[in-house]
Amino acid sequence: MNTMHRSDAESVSSHDLSELGLEHVAYVRASVQDGEALWSIHSADGQEIGQAPTRDLAFAAIVQHDMEPASVH
Predict the structure, then answer these.
(1) Which end of the chain is less crowded, N or C, counting CB atoms within 10 A of the terminal residue's CB?
(2) Domain contains 13
(3) Is residue 11 part of a domain?
(4) What secondary structure does DSSP assign to the chain, as a single string?
């Protein structure tokens, strides 16, 4: 079994992720901005690429842009 250590994961570049096809994956996570709860949308490399007022709208936006949504807990 190949186990990835934290230091290995931290050294993965945006290029490495795109080579794996992860440019088609976006994830959402709950966040708070100016005291307001919202859902932030991030590319696989962690860059924030959008926000939505609800999780459902965040997922819909991701799908609308031909990407695969994923949740981060």
Answers:
(1) N
(2) no
(3) no
(4) -----HHHHHT--HHHHHHTTGGGEEEEEEEEETTEEEEEEEETTS-EEEEESSHHHHHHHHHHTT-EEEE--
